[in-house]
Amino acid sequence: xxxxxxxxxxxxxxxxxxxxxxxxxxxxxxxxxxxxxxxxxxxxxxxxxxxxxxxxxxxxxxxxxxxxxxxxxxxxxxxxxxxxxxxxxxxxxxxxxxxxxxxxxxxxxxxx
Amino acid sequence: xxxxxxxxxxxxxxxxxxxxxxxxxxxxxxxxxxxxxxxxxxxxxxxxxxxxxxxxxxxxxxxxxxxxxxxxxxxxxxxxxxxxxxxxxxxxxxxxxxxxxxxxxxxx
Lengths: 112, 108
Hints:
- The complex is a heterodimer.
- Chain A is 0% helix and 55% strand.
- Chain A is mostly beta strands.
- In chain A, the strands form two sheets. In chain A, strands 2, 4, 5, 6, 9, 10 and 11 form a seven-stranded mixed β-sheet that branches. A four-stranded antiparallel β-sheet of chain A has the order 1-3-8-7, with no helix packed on it.
- Chain B is mainly β.
- Chain B has no helices and eleven strands.
- Chain B has strands spanning 3-5, 10-14, 19-21, 24-26, 32-38, 45-49, 60-61, 72-74, 83-91, 94-98, 102-107.
- Chain B starts with a strand and ends with a strand.
- In chain B, β9 and β10 (94-98) form a beta hairpin.
- In chain B, strands 2, 5, 6, 9, 10 and 11 form a six-stranded mixed β-sheet that branches. A three-stranded antiparallel β-sheet of chain B has the order 3-8-7, with no helix packed on it.
- Chains A and B meet through β4, β5, β9 and β10 of A and β6 and β10 of B.
């Protein structure tokens, strides 16, 4: 297994544009997490899913952010419209039944 | 509320010196504590978990409930230990709360 796969690795977009980040969890894992990493705040949990169902989205900063998990092998995190303060590295992670969470390599988002 | 504090953004030591990366937490229940590591250009990965009480790559961490700390220690640092280290708290692996991280730089 290639591990958790995120795309794109890098994204540069203009303020106001829609951004979609993608994640493919490890096959068979039933939990999926989206984190945001910044210098100031470190790693923050945005939302996590269990068996494709969103369990806790209290970390989603505002309505501009939304996440979906249409099936067990795919999730998206969308920002619309994007703002410069959204610039960060976004990580996806997956786990099986509360065992170790495996992280993807992250998507570095720059909003100019 | 759950909170993890890593007071040092950067810790710089020489090869062979002892290392201690500090982590303090606040949590009302029984915490589960973890250390994650991110080497340059690699993904974040679990280093150790307090429940397992293991030593990984020479690192150990002891949970001190009295001091609400989970400091990461290694008696003799190696250059390959240079990385970003995150302390995390949670229930199992759901809703992990991370600290802001400490960058460890080991110089030859």
